[in-house]
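so my prof wants the structure for this chain in the tokens format not the other one, which i didnt know existed until like an hour ago. anyway here's the sequence
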Amino acid sequence: MPRVSERQRLLRDSVDVMAVATLEEDDDDLLHSAQGRAAVTEDQLLFSELDEVSDMLQLVESSRYLVDRKRIDSCTQFNAEASYPTSRFRQRTRMDKSSFESVVNKIKDNPVFYNDSPCPQAPVWMQLAVALDRFGNYGSGAARRSCGVSAKALSTTIRIAW
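here's what i got, hopefully its the right format
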């Protein structure tokens, strides 16, 4: 069964409220015309409520998201020291910042992380972060989802020596 988003639920509920209000308005018109009187204050209240619901419906339909979304940083913006809170950093790399820095310092001089081509490899810390994220997730697109790395960049970023 597909999940219904909060936005879809709000749109559905707003349309339902407007439909019920319209039906009530029609019923009130029939009732007041049968009694030969007009209820101006009730109609004004109903219209003001309908206007509010209509404005809300228009506002929700005019934007794709109810809450502003945070863009995923590209891996070139990933900073092991400061950019992510500890919990998010740990979720991505499966280790805390001090351990990550220790591993980077131990492996940074290994020649596997450097090449002599005109296209240099990504920094050691970035290669390690992408590799740890990739190893910690299941699926071919796991690293792209969390780091914002393209498929081509992934193939040239990680060189692992077994």
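also thought this was worth mentioning. Residues 154-162 have pLDDT under 50 and may be disordered.
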